[in-house]
Design a protein that fits this description.
single chain; about 325 residues; alpha/beta; Rossmann fold; Methionyl-tRNA Fmet Formyltransferase, Chain A, domain 2; seven-stranded mixed beta sheet; 17 strands; about 25% strand
């Protein structure tokens, strides 16, 4: 089926590529795709195209990769050229998903129907860069996608529609990301069909209360502080899969922990200190925490692969009584 609505798309990672694919496959014309400049990645640090750019190129869609869209920013000439291209490309609406560049008011004003953002949180719960990670880390029981009419603030625009999904006790950022990418792709196609049919999309202002800022995940957060409760550490490990992983240091070597659960019923003996290994079995490595104990079931040694505890222990035996180091500064 073909549609008359013309959509400029702006996005960069896999999450955005899923939405672009759904819009294109639903028959909407996509006269232009904006994505971040190619970045060095992988072992050889070769320049790599974003997932959105790869999809666009595979499907014959025009791509632009400006370093900035702000005339007053560091790259005024590139920004001016990109703005000229947006003005010169006939379109009706712009869809934005995890693009990674700030859109100034001038850009928001170009599309006749404005810019619609696909945001991976039930707004206003998590605004900002890492809503999926932060929802898991905080122990939220549900997440979802909000479509939002963009304004100049950070994820503050009025809400068009949302879809919800429970966060399962085994969800990681990777699994929740894939589910939300799919839900976002379905929700945006529905919205575009409605916009085409009715010429408008009703929206509601975000509630004034309950907003949190989902700070980007930093590598320095990976170090696990064993003084924290076991359930908090288990959530942190799930939130940090696939990046940056939970990091524990043993005898100076950094071991990555990829899966763990509070070890119910494992009492902490008197005098056991946080970080101390209590028990080592093929089912997992049990470690003392500030509250309770944690059973780690998937680990990775430096230069190794992610392995279930049984296989990991065959290559790097651990023993009860050994102790993971505590980070220098306690995490609150």
């Amino acid at each position: 089926m073909s549609h008359s609505l013309r959509v400029i798309f702006a996005g960069t990672p896999e999450f955005a590529a899923a939405a672009l694919a759904a819009i294109h496959e639903a028959g909407f014309a996509v006269p232009l795709v904006l994505t971040q400049p190619d970045r060095p990645a992988g072992r050889g640090m070769k320049l790599q195209a974003s997932p959105v750019k790869r999809y666009a190129q595979d499907n014959g869609l025009a791509v632009a990769q400006p370093t900035s869209l702000r005339r007053a920013g560091k790259y005024p000439e590139e920004a001016a050229a990109a703005l000229e291209l947006l003005h010169a490309t006939p379109h009706d609406v712009m869809v934005v998903a995890a693009y990674g560049l700030i859109l100034p008011q001038e850009v928001l004003d170009i599309p006749p129907h404005g810019c619609i953002n696909i945001h991976a949180s039930l707004l206003p719960r998590w605004r900002g860069a890492a809503p999926i990670h932060r929802a898991i880390e905080a122990g939220d029981t549900e997440s979802g996608i909000t479509l939002m009419q963009m304004d100049a603030g950070l994820d503050t625009g009025p809400m068009i529609s949302e879809v919800r999904t429970p966060i399962a006790p085994v969800d990681t950022t990777a699994t929740l990301h894939d589910r939300l990418a799919q839900l976002g792709a379905e929700l945006i196609v529905k919205a575009l069909v409605e916009l085409e049919r009715n010429g408008t999309l009703p929206s509601t202002p975000q509630p004034a209360h309950g907003a949190n800022y989902a700070e980007k995940i930093g590598k320095q957060e990976a170090a696990l502080d064993w003084r924290r409760p076991a359930n908090v550490l288990a959530r942190q490990i799930r939130a940090f899969d696939p990046f940056p992983g939970g990091v524990a240091t043993l005898d100076g070597a950094q071991v990555k922990l990829w899966a763990a659960e509070p070890a119910d019923g494992t009492g902490v003996p008197a005098g056991a200190a946080p970080g101390q290994i209590l028990d080592v079995t093929p089912a997992g490595v049990v470690v003392v925490c500030g509250e309770g104990t944690l059973r780690v079931t998937q680990l990775q040694k430096p230069g190794g692969k992610r392995l279930p505890a049984r296989e990991f222990l065959a290559g790097l035996p651990l023993a009860a009584g050994q102790r993971f180091q505590l980070p220098d500064t306690p995490t609150v």
